[in-house]
Amino acid sequence: MSTRDLIARDTAHLIHPLHSTVAQQGARVWVKGEGALLTDADGHEYIDGLAGLWNVLAGHGRRELAEAARAQCETLAYASGYTGSSNERAIELAEHLAGLTYSSINRFFFTSGGGEATESSIKMARAYWKLRGRADKTKVISRIEGYHGVTLAAMSATGLSAYWPLFEPRVPGFVHIPSPYPYRYDAPPGVSQGIAAANELEQAILREGADTVAMFLAEPVQGAGGVIVPQDDYFSRIREICDQYDVLLVADEVITAFGRTGTLFALDHWHIEPDIVQFAKAITSGYIPFGGIGISDTIASTLDDDGRAWMHAHTYSAHPVGCAVAIRNLRIIEDEDLPGQCADKGTRLLASLRTALGDHPHVGDIRGKGLMCAVELVADRSTKESFPAGDKVGPRVLQETARLGLFSRIKADTYVLAPPAVITDDQLDRTVEILSDAIRTVLG
User: Fold this and answer.
1) Residue 95 lies in domain
2) pLDDT tens track for 45-55
3) How far apart are CA 86 and CA 78, in angstroms?
4) CA-based nearest residue to 93, from 364, 332, 323
5) What's the structural domain count of the chain?
6) In the chain, pLDDT over 90 holds for what percent of residues?
7) Stretch (H or E) spanning 234
8) Looking at the structure, do residues 229 and 371 belong to the same domain, yes or no?
């Protein structure tokens, strides 16, 4: 059946994430994936420039992951993960993660994805402070350009305002500070950009009152906001501020965990540890919905010692099939050194983008960390002035890259790339060629 026929059926019966009936008319219907490639219903092949939605780290078509799911479905497809019940795969996965994550994090709660992980972090932080006798510490500080999901509390933490209007009022108690955004953050004279951006957190804590702030939620590298890589002195100062004011540091590693930035967990780049880490996406390479949070030993012992029930739950927490696929996928990540592949291929991709586009008059910034890169387009390089939204420069470039065989996403006029770790060098070179050609077609 042709794409046109399938989209007609789609339009009649489906509501999509970020739903737009008009935009869906130009959609592609995917029928096959192999490695870093996707094939649509008309038989056209594309490089998957965003690994699905940042998540298909090990690549499409991994039979070992399908086999892990099949074998577990045949043995124990589902069992409750509520207190009073457990399963072998959940225990095995939690043990394995304890050996992989930050040294102070050894206990885990599993979810079906990243949005649920954010909700779980928020509820864990609030519960922790209540158990410590500090019930007023409930507020969440996060960052502009941050993405943490779109369930109601997670959406309130998300710092991308386009997600808010149809669903406001937002949940109270959520505060946003500026992103460190090296290309656009203005630091005061005499202060490094990273320290100045981190000090925005201290100023917010003091404005709100330290006795009211429960947690600071941050992606190590902001993904959906446009692949914003912080300055090297940013997170060490963030950790100092959180310690000084008794604020939990929650690392949203839903995109960055398990190798995407070149290390298993991204805060390792800056040699600090969070109090809570949330993950999803690459833990199963997207083969089954799965996520979770890991909590510090301090939080875990507080939860255990008090004895009260933590009244938070999901039907599919510790799902045996999800755990089985995660365990098998972690073996792939380790055996094939996907973090190392992301580091090496990310270096190649970033260098190639800079060689091909670094002198283009409308390319303002080319940035990345590991296999996570972005090209930001501007009207004027000297002033960093953005194009008027009505020019639709980003959408036009996106459409042109798709026409040429590269499928990814944009944030306004920033084109983002995070292909599967198994992408070949030839496919990386073709990615750069397509994006370069598309930008020149649209902007000259």
Assistant:
1) 64-335
2) 999 999 999 99
3) 10
4) 323
5) 2
6) 99
7) helix 234-244
8) no
